[in-house]
């Protein structure tokens, strides 16, 4: 039977996800850059969150013996790497202060970590519930 994640870890995961996302989005809102640049960075965040959850799901499915096509598994990893590369290239070429560049990089990474942890907790909670249901 799978063990349900602790309430502390679940809470910490959600805090990491929302802190990273809100920090990143508030930073974009207040940034003095053109709207198309803001859209670029916002799209990278959203694409990165989706890609991170997809990678976590694919890896977990394969570990548990759930079929995952090689093409989807590969696309998930390429997407995750692509978002990181796009963020690096965008920040490298941006006319932002180094502290702002670091802020966006770390807010992005915190968001990605939070998304992966929330997805893991969701799977663990569902697996724990399914184990309890099977025992009854």
From TrEMBL:
Biological processes per GO annotation: DNA damage response
Stretches assigned to the YiaAB two helix domain: 9-61, 72-124
Stored Pfam families: YiaAB (PF05360)
Domain of life assignment: Bacteria
Keywords: Membrane, Transmembrane, Transmembrane helix
Record's GO cellular component terms: plasma membrane
Stretches that traverse the bilayer: 7-27, 39-59, 71-91, 103-119
NCBIfam families: PRK11383.1
Protein name: YiaAB two helix domain-containing protein
């Amino acid at each position: 039977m799978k063990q349900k994640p602790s309430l502390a870890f679940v809470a910490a995961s959600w805090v990491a996800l929302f802190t990273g996302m809100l920090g990143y989005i508030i930073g974009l809102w207040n940034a003095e850059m053109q709207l198309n640049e803001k859209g670029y960075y916002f799209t990278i965040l959203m694409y990165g969150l989706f890609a991170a959850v997809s990678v976590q799901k694919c890896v977990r499915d394969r570990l548990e013996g759930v079929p995952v096509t090689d093409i989807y598994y590969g696309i998930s990893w390429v997407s995750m790497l692509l978002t990181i590369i796009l963020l690096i290239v965008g920040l490298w070429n941006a006319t932002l202060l180094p502290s702002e560049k670091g802020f966006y990089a770390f807010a992005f990474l915190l968001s990605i970590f939070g998304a992966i942890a929330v997805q893991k907790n969701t799977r663990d909670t569902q697996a724990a519930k399914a184990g309890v249901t099977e025992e009854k």
